[in-house]
Design brief:
The protein has 364 residues and is an alpha+beta fold. The chain is built from 9 helices and 17 strands. It has 2 domains: 4-83 and 190-362, 3-Layer(aba) Sandwich (Aminopeptidase); 86-176, Elongation Factor Tu (Ef-tu), domain 3 (Beta Barrel). The strands form 3 sheets. The protein has an 8-stranded mixed sheet with strand order 1-2-12-3-13-16-14-15, sandwiched between helices. A 6-stranded antiparallel beta barrel has the order 4-5-8-7-6-9. The two termini are 31 Å apart. Bound molecules: zinc ion (ZN).
Length: 364
């Protein structure tokens, strides 16, 4: 598996409300795959691919004929959120320390001693993030046993206060500054949630295009904004498109690791793409889950069913937009989620890509 695009997606900063750099990268990657590409007022990148007939040698892109007068093609919407969890600059204190406002759910235990990028108008500035308080050498046992809150963390960019205040503004975005790496059979990054879905949206349609297989549905691949703060972009995009069927592509937990009983593992890495039966935001359409499973079985693609006890994803917003639609979640199991070491098995990611590409032509 070539991970070049995934690496670039993961290393491009983009937090809820500031997805523009990720969006620009995706726009540069999807040329030729879609018939119409627009950005809505909220920032969602809406990519439409019209129905395609089976490709013949004489005619490369014949548009499928509508079945009968008045029949409209089924609208299928895929949602791939572009945002990663991150921070906004909340304030700069008199010593030049940057105080932060989180955008998305952080576990403070994953926030210690992190390199960060403060993305300013003049460029990205590297800094260090740590919690307030004494280091180990001079702290009491009681102090060391306490986990600080997110608001206790601050950023030091190594400059005097006047320089910090000149370069950095309240509202600038901050992301973790950690490299994408390949580790054994896996990929590791701080932003696999949810750049893997951006990758899936692009690569599944690329696989479909390469295959030349016909599809009679009108496909809307939407790269959404602000998922991590409450599925906001998918709600407006779903309302605009009014899909018949929608899939939320996202990460889910893989807690097949020490300290978690196997019945709580949610998914197991290497066991394939995840049919996301339910979470706090969605109960997936059970027939849609069955359909996806049948396609996987026919094409010999590995899949596993899973329930996430808490958490949400864009499928929930699309399911409830306007008059509602048939929706399901299609996920990829991710270890150490919402940390800088998020890890995904490459074969699970490939299974998800192959399943989306094989399923689209089956929607009639
Ligand atoms: Zn996500």
């Amino acid at each position: 598996m070539n991970t070049d695009l995934l690496k670039r997606l993961c290393e491009t900063p983009g937090i809820p409300g500031r997805e523009e750099r990720v969006r620009d990268l995706i726009i540069s990657e999807v040329k030729g795959l879609f018939d119409d590409i627009t950005t809505d007022p909220m920032g969602n990148l809406m990519c439409r691919r019209d129905p395609r007939g089976r490709r013949t040698s004489s005619k490369k892109k014949s548009t499928a004929k509508k079945k009968s007068s008045g029949a409209r093609p089924k609208k299928v919407m895929l949602a791939c959120h572009m945002d990663e969890i991150g921070f906004y600059v909340k304030a700069i204190d008199d010593k030049g320390f940057i105080r932060i406002q989180p955008a998305g759910g952080f576990d403070p235990r994953n926030m210690f001693s992190r390199r960060v990028l403060v993305c300013t108008k003049g460029g990205d500035i590297v800094g260090s993030m740590n919690p307030g308080g004494r280091p180990i050498h001079i702290s009491s046992a009681e102090e060391r046993s306490k986990v600080p809150e997110v608001k206790d963390f601050f950023i030091d960019i190594g400059l005097p206060a006047a320089d910090v205040k000149r370069k950095v503004r309240v509202g600038d975005m901050i992301v973790w500054h950690e490299p994408f790496e390949e580790v054994g059979h896996k990929v590791m990054s701080k932003a696999l949630d949810n750049r893997i879905a951006c990758w899936l949206g692009i690569e599944s349609v690329r696989a479909l295009e390469k295959s030349g297989v016909a599809h009679s549905c009108e496909l809307h691949c939407v790269f959404t904004v602000q998922e991590e703060v409450g599925l906001r972009g998918a709600r407006t995009a779903g309302s605009a498109i009014e899909p018949d069927i929608a899939l939320g592509l996202d990460t889910t937990l893989a807690c097949d690791t020490p300290g978690v009983p196997s019945e709580e593992s949610v998914t197991k890495q290497g066991d394939g793409a995840v049919l996301h039966v339910m979470d706090s935001s969605i109960i997936s359409d059970h027939e849609l889950i069955n359909d996806l499973e049948a396609v996987a079985k026919k094409k010999r693609i590995k899949v596993q069913r899973s329930i996430l006890p808490r958490g949400g994803q864009d499928g929930g917003a699309m399911q409830q937009a306007m008059k509602g639609c048939r929706a399901a979640g299609l996920s990829v199991g991710t270890r150490y989620i919402h940390s800088v070491t998020e890890m995904i098995h490459k074969s699970d990611l490939e299974a998800a890509r192959d399943l989306v590409a094989a399923w689209i032509p089956t929607v009639k």
